[in-house]
Design brief:
The chain has about 350 residues and is an alpha/beta fold. It has two domains: about 5-145, Cytidine Deaminase, domain 2 (3-Layer(aba) Sandwich), CATH 3.40.140; about 150-360, Dihydrofolate Reductase, subunit A, CATH 3.40.430.10. It contains ten helices and 14 strands. The strands form two sheets. It has a nine-stranded mixed β-sheet, sandwiched between helices. Strands 2-1-3-4-5 form a five-stranded mixed β-sheet, sandwiched between helices. Helix 3 (about 90-95) runs parallel beside helix 4 (about 115-120). The two termini are about 35 Å apart. Bound molecules: NADP nicotinamide-adenine-dinucleotide phosphate. NADP nicotinamide-adenine-dinucleotide phosphate binds near residues 198, 224, 296, 298 and 327.
């Protein structure tokens, strides 16, 4: 099979893998296509739910006896270990797969080594890099290599870059279709993170509403001085609320904490100078693999400064605010030279109702 044909089948495998988002995490999203030598697809599969069959096993089931002598194209190196499911390398060998192409090496020291296992069993396994598959695996690679969650920010802004008027009004910047997409995403992530500025100004619930909820996200507030009002909506409902607070709090703040604890809030300490890294590491340790940031410029700027922001979904609404003191998507990063500012990578541009949706990777 030519590398171009392998890449075309990897395009397909990436597209189907993305259907696992919200179901598979903290596992990686993975897609697999089984094809004849001339690249005609026979069957396809993807990892649907954490603890369920991996993509290769899903595709092998769909292929049945037709898998014998065929080629498997997988977005991530087949695993070599027995977790909740058996090793995919063994499943491919037993099914009589003749050749394997994969796009990203498995960074997991426990599960990696599938390609070696296949080669040792006489099944050629070749890595063919594919940018889309690499993007798909990024959250998993980050978690394995840094033990930090994947952090995506979303915000809605005007054509001229305002996320709210100078008086804080921001309802609604984006169209109903864009907002529905955000609700769907809330129902797929482990946590939604906001800042105290947004809690005070907008009093959001940050729950997924009107959509299929695959996981009920924890609500997390960056609130160094414990200013969350006891009647805040973020403390209502079933999803737990956690406040990230300064590690040196005065007596008044501790009294406010006691009141908020009575409303079901839990607390996690921030690091020195209210840095977020240790708190995010602690959240990852407790099972938070994906975080959606829905905040103002203060928190987004802080995450950027600390190098903790992985991607941004920016909804650009068709209005010109024209207000010099309007609020911006990020602040607190003051540089003198434009050339010193790192550029994000633009991954996609789509239309969502009346808005443009830009997807950036940092
Ligand atoms: N269009 C959108 O998509 C969207 C989404 C979310 C929020 N918003 C808007 O963003 C605005 C809020 O943004 P924001 O940057 O102020 O807040 P934020 O990022 O949600 O919250 C964190 C920041 O709040 C500020 N802050 C305000 N009061 C505070 C307090 N009592 N204690 C500690 N920090 C406090 C701090 O900024 P400093 O350190 O700089 O003071 C802190 O960095 C609201 O108007 C909201 O409507 C828009």
């Amino acid at each position: 099979m030519t590398p171009d044909r392998v890449r075309a089948l990897l395009d397909r495998a990436v597209r189907i893998a993305a259907r696992g988002h919200g179901g598979v995490e903290p596992n990686p999203m993975v897609g697999c296509v089984i094809a004849h030598d001339d690249a005609t697809p026979i069957a396809e599969g993807f990892h649907r739910v954490c603890g369920g069959p991996h993509a290769e096993v899903d595709a092998l089931r769909a292929a049945g006896a037709r898998a014998r002598g065929a080629t498997a194209i997988v977005t991530l190196e087949p695993c070599a270990h027995r977790g909740r499911t058996g090793p995919c390398a063994d499943a491919l060998i037993e099914a009589g797969i003749a050749r394997v192409y994969y796009a990203v090496a498995d960074p997991n020291p426990i599960a990696g080594g599938g390609a070696r296992k296949l080669i040792d069993a006489g099944v050629p396994a070749e890595l063919i890099f594919h940018a889309g598959a690499d993007e798909l695996a990024r959250p998993f690679i980050k978690r394995i290599t840094t033990k930090l969650p994947w952090v995506s920010a979303k915000w809605a802004q005007s054509i001229d870059g305002a996320i709210a008027l100078s008086n804080g009004d921001s309802k609604w910047m984006s169209c109903a279709r864009s907002r529905a997409m955000v609700h769907r995403e809330r129902g797929r992530v482990d946590a939604v993170l906001t800042g105290i500025g947004t809690v005070v100004e907008d009093d959001p619930q940050l729950t997924p509403r009107g959509v299929r909820v695959q996981r009920l996200p924890r609500r997390i507030v960056f609130d160094p001085d414990v200013m969350t009002p006891v009647e805040a909506k973020i403390l209502e409902g079933d999803a737990p609320a956690t406040l990230l607070v300064s590690n040196a709090l005065d007596a008044a703040a501790q009294r406010r904490m006691a009141l908020l604890r009575g409303r079901g809030a839990t607390f996690l300490p921030l690091g020195p100078r209210d840095s977020l890294k240790d708190a995010l590491a602690a959240l990852a340790e407790s099972g938070v693999a994906t975080i959606l940031v829905e905040a103002g410029g203060g928190l987004v700027g802080r995450l950027l400064r600390e190098g903790l922001l992985d991607e941004a979904w920016v909804f650009v609404a068709p209005l010109l605010v024209g207000d010099a003191s309007a609020q911006r998507g990020a602040r607190g990063i003051d540089r003198d030279v434009l050339a010193a500012i790192p550029r994000a990578r633009l991954l996609s541009v789509r239309r969502r109702g009346a808005d443009a949706l830009l997807h950036y990777r940092f």
